[in-house]
Amino acid sequence: MGKIAYVFPGQGSQYVGMAYDFYREFHQAADVFHEAEHSLRMSLPDLVDVVLKGPEEKLNRTIYTQPGILVASYAIYRVMEESGLPKPDYLAGHSLGEYTALLVAGGIELFEAVRLTYLRGKYMQEAVPEGKGAMAAVLKIPPEEVEKVCEEAREFGIVEPANYNSPQQTVISGEKQAVERASELAKQRGAKVIPLKVSVPSHCSLMKGAADAFRLKLAQTPIKNVDIPVVQNYTARDHKMAHEVRENLYRQIFSPVRWYQSIEYMVEQGVDTFVEVGPKNVLSKLIQQTVPEVRVFNIEKVEDLEKVKSAL
Question: Which CATH class is domain 133-198?
Answer without folding.
Answer: alpha beta
